[in-house]
Amino acid sequence: MRWKFGPMAPKLKHKKSRLSLGIFAADLGALASVGRDVASWGAELLHFDVMDGVFVPHFTGGPGFVAGHSDDLLMDVHLMVQRPADHVEAFVKAGADIVTIHVESYEPAAALTKAREAAQDLGKNILAGYAVMPGTDLTSLEALSASKPDIILVLALDPRTTDPVDVSAACDRVQLLRSKFSDAVIQFDGGVTMNTIAEITASGADLIVSGSAIFKAQDRSAAFNEMNTIVATATQ
């Protein structure tokens, strides 16, 4: 069943805004059941922030976390690692449908090519693209435009610093990137709450990552449905 959603990944370019749920904000002792739970709510994507403890100070799980989750969801993998080319193939093989690679990492274009080659070898359709920290000049993305990224992830918070989240500044970057990369999916991550979701959706973000606002809520299903309703209303 893993490949049945393969063709759906490119179609994300042509559909309404939607949520991607940040799984590492969930109860780490119950991750095995998270995929089943969120699929029952009507969610479509699980977002994995993969950290190596080098590129960013934190460390999270590897490809096994992706492979161990529901076949009924798209696996959205954000690689916050220093040398992404060393890791992309394993994540694609584990079931990643979306792979984003930081422009600030080592040889991001080579890693993007490697991700696409791995998907091609598997006969799998994926979205592969870049992620950009809030303090990084967007000319870094323009320099990588020749690789035609399918997706660009805009962060509103840099986990390497103590700077506060700036949702409005990130929304401005989403709008600018929308004008420069009209064919790419634009994704937003950081500071996504019930109070900011409408502004983020209005900025033109196609995919919006939400973790704590949903998984830390007393009623997680209700929180997802409320946020999903706001997204749907804002895009009508």
Describe, in plain words, how this protein is organized in 3D:
This protein has 236 residues and is α/β, with parallel strands linked by helices. It has one domain: Alpha-Beta Barrel (TIM Barrel), CATH 3.20.20.70. 36% of the residues lie in helices and 19% in strands. The protein contains ten helices and eight strands. It has an eight-stranded parallel β-barrel, surrounded by four helices. Helix 4 packs parallel to helix 5. The longest helix is centred in the middle third of the chain and has 15 residues. The chain is globular, with a radius of gyration of 16 Å. The N terminus is likely disordered.
- Secondary structure class reads alpha/beta
The value of Rg in angstroms is: 16 Å
On the 0-100 scale, what is the average pLDDT?
A: 89
Please state the second-level CATH architecture.
Alpha-Beta Barrel
Helices and strands in order:
Elements: H1 8-11, E1 18-22, H2 31-41, E2 45-51, H3 63-67, E3 74-80, H4 88-94, E4 98-102, H5 108-122, E5 127-132, H6 139-143, E6 151-155, H7 167-180, E7 185-189, H8 197-202, E8 207-210, H9 212-215, H10 220-234
Summarize the structure.
This protein is of the alpha/beta class and 236 residues long.
Features:
8 strands; 36% helix; disordered N terminus; 10 helices; single chain; 236 residues; alpha/beta; TIM Barrel
